[in-house]
Design brief:
This protein is of the alpha+beta class. It has 2 helices and 8 strands. It is globular, with a radius of gyration of 18 Å.
Length: 201
């Protein structure tokens, strides 16, 4: 019996380690991808002046404590609404689900959204949008909050990796129009993960 319990414990630890290792690799891959995009003049949101001196974005150290598995409460009959942006543009969104999760011993909820126009586009049918604010905004991170891109999962849970959060394009260039995270998506905790603020923005 003791051998059986020990074996199960070892398998559980190995599974957790493997998941953490994969998530770390995914976060590194994310950082490389976004840095590559920012270095590309055709894709970068940076101004021409900033692009000249760009090397790489500043990230928090990758921390697996900021990777959570969230339970989803689906909003099947969710009404569409106009999401506020940094300009007068009002894109149409709807709530896909509410994600509930535990982070550092505390319970949190975030709404996950769908851009109604985007999900009608080829290759983006499963795209989900998670905008949020937290206590680091205006200090170590962009004052207007940050974003995360997700995809529709197979079941009723979803992996949220805050190491893969990024800044709105308007954090780098005022010419962009960026969705403002709804008040319901504020986290009363420091999310020390993902992209940090750019310069003094």
């Amino acid at each position: 019996m003791r051998i059986f319990i020990l074996t199960i414990s070892i398998l559980f630890i190995n599974t957790i380690y493997s998941q953490g290792n994969k998530s770390t690799k995914d976060a590194i891959k994310f950082q490389k991808k976004i840095n590559k995009e920012f270095s590309n003049k055709e894709k970068s949101p940076l101004t021409d002046e900033d692009l000249k001196d760009f090397n790489e974005l500043d990230f928090f150290p990758i921390d697996t404590n900021f990777i959570v598995i969230a339970d989803l409460k689906f909003h099947k009959d969710s009404k569409t609404f106009k999401m506020q942006t940094t300009t007068d543009r009002l894109p149409i969104y709807k709530i896909y689900a509410t994600a509930s999760f535990n982070l550092k011993g505390r319970e949190f909820k975030l709404n996950i959204y769908q851009n109604v126009k985007l999900i009608q586009t080829a290759d983006f049918e499963d795209s989900l949008f998670l905008p949020f604010t937290d206590r680091t905004n205006g200090a170590t991170t962009y004052g207007g909050g940050r974003y995360m891109d997700l995809e529709i999962p197979d079941g009723d849970t979803i992996l949220i990796d805050f190491n893969q959060t990024y800044n709105p394009s308007c954090a780098y260039n005022a010419k962009y129009s960026c969705p403002i995270p709804p008040k319901a998506n504020h986290l009363d905790i420091d999310i020390n993960a993902g992209v940090k603020k750019y310069k003094d923005h």
